């Protein structure tokens, strides 16, 4: 089980292996002559904008790890509320970079950041605090997870743009399950009181989680969900895509009004 917990050092090897596989699948999709300006499932972004976004994001990680290693003070976190607008501007600013040049730049960035992750030891995986531009100080293990989100979910976006039926990688979805609760916690909008259960039905991170939203935000913990007004069941892939706003999925057990209110609490990043 610990091998599938990306927040623990025991899960490092699994996490980095799956990140590398998802990245190779991504690079295999973005190098073709006819894909650069193709639509995606990421709003108005074309394939070239997705590549630009990953480039911009990865290069920000170099600044973050340099600051963490040198104990350099950084500006306060930008915050998640304005993240979607800013990352859009950052991506579109690279639209005119030629395809070969930008893809090669991202490949070089990817190799460099994976070298940083490979070097993280057992004390640093969760013990090194790295300042994220949008979220502020985070344990180092979040950064490989963010790369998995980027390469896994944005690969889904590119496949979505083709109009063909497809799905999300099982291993990527399994690893991302615990991080989706964190994503929800930090993107909670309206905070009207709400309590319900989330059940992940399969995979190594399957289980029940009690979720409570109130004026101070969202809290969650593993536990018995019987007796709660509603439970929403997800397989791992549906959970990830729902948390990222790519789909409206889930099986509602109990009070639909409670489940609907909860599912509409979040702003998109």
TrEMBL record:
Pfam family, one: MDMPI_N
Residues annotated as domain Mycothiol-dependent maleylpyruvate isomerase metal-binding: 33-159
Gene Ontology molecular function terms on file: metal ion binding
UniProt-listed SUPFAM superfamilies: DinB/YfiT-like putative metalloenzymes
Entry-linked InterPro entries: DinB/YfiT-like, Maleyloyr_isom, MDMPI_metal-binding
Superkingdom assignment: Bacteria
Protein name: Uncharacterized protein (TIGR03083 family)
Gene source species: Kribbella rubisoli
């Amino acid at each position: 089980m610990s091998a599938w917990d990306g927040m623990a050092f025991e899960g490092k090897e699994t996490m980095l292996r799956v990140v590398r596989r998802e990245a190779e699948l991504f690079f295999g999709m973005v190098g073709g002559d006819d894909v650069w300006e193709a639509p995606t499932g990421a709003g108005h972004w074309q394939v070239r904008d997705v590549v630009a976004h990953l480039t911009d994001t990865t290069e920000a990680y170099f600044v973050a790890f340099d600051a963490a290693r040198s104990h350099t003070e950084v500006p306060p976190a930008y915050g998640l509320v304005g993240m979607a607008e800013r990352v859009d501007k950052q991506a579109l600013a690279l639209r005119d970079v030629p395809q070969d040049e930008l893809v090669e730049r991202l490949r070089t960035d990817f190799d460099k950041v994976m070298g940083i992750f490979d070097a993280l030891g057992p004390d640093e995986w969760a013990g090194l605090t790295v300042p994220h531009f949008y979220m502020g100080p985070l344990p180092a293990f979040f950064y490989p997870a963010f790369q998995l989100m980027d390469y896994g979910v944005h690969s889904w976006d590119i496949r979505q743009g083709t109009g063909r039926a497809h799905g999300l990688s099982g291993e990527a979805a399994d690893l991302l399950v615990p991080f989706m609760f964190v994503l929800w916690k930090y993107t909670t909008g309206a905070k009207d009181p709400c309590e319900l259960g989330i059940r992940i039905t399969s995979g190594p991170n399957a289980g029940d989680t009690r979720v409570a939203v109130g004026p101070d935000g969202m809290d969650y913990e593993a536990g018995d969900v019987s007796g709660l007004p509603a439970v929403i069941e997800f397989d791992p892939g549906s959970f990830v895509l729902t948390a990222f706003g790519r789909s409206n999925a889930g099986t509602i057990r109990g009070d639909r009004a409670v489940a609907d209110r909860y599912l509409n609490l979040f702003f998109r990043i």
